[in-house]
Design goal:
Elements (H helix, E strand, L loop, with lengths): L1 E5 L5 H10 L3 E4 H11 L1 H8 L12 H8 L3 H25 L8 E4 L14 E6 L2 H12 L3 H10 L4 H6 L3 E6 L4 H14 L2
Parallel strand pairs: 1-3, 1-4, 2-3, 4-5
Helix pairs in contact: 1-9, 2-5, 3-5
Length: 194
């Protein structure tokens, strides 16, 4: 099984799209996390308050993010509610994709190193991009200001201890150029590495 991760606005989703075009089944763990959040919304609202839920009954992920990413203790409590369901959904998705040994299965997750499934990845692609590129992408994609983007980037530093414990072969993938360059890099890696 292949792992795919990268920091905020580094280009992880673009690499997943390229891998999908090469015949890989990419499991979007971030999307599974959204489903896990919906399943556990009543408990999340009890923890975070009514601002965690939109008027239509769905989670307000932006409000939740503002609350939990500004308070490490609250983030740990939130993750304790949502992550077990996300881990279970991830295992189901791996099984539905044919299992980690039976084909081209890619586990695509921003928090890959904190997933128990990361230990089953033989190789991990870690997408990287220069800070200024990430700032531009964050402003364009999410409409955030530079300070909020830097806060998101810094919040991901907590993944580093888990990264160091990972036994998989980690391959850095530079996403500093355009899409054609990224396609060339991934196609070359796919032929030569995994």
């Amino acid at each position: 099984m292949l792992g795919l991760t990268g920091g905020y606005c580094a280009g992880k989703s673009e690499v997943a799209a390229i891998l999908s075009g090469l015949g890989w089944t990419c499991i979007d763990v971030d999307a599974l996390g959204h489903r896990a959040l919906e399943y556990n919304l009543p408990a999340v609202v009890r923890l975070l308050g009514p601002d965690a839920q939109r008027p239509d009954g769905l989670p307000d992920r932006r409000a939740i993010g503002q609350l939990v990413f500004s308070d490490k203790a609250l983030l740990r409590q939130f993750e304790a509610l949502v992550h077990p369901a996300m881990f279970a959904l991830t295992d189901e998705a791996i099984k539905a994709a044919g299992g980690e040994q039976d084909g081209k299965v890619c586990l695509d997750a921003a928090i890959l190193y904190r997933l128990p499934q990361a230990a089953r990845c033989r190789t991990i692609l870690e997408v990287r991009a220069p800070l200024l590129v990430r700032l531009r992408r964050g402003m364009a994609r999410d409409g955030l200001g530079p300070l909020r983007i830097l806060q998101r980037i810094l919040s991901q530093r907590s993944l580093q201890p888990a990264r160091k414990a990972c036994k998989a072969r980690i391959i850095p993938v530079s996403n500093a150029g355009g899409r054609q360059e990224l396609v060339r890099i991934i196609e070359t890696l796919a032929r030569q590495t995994f």
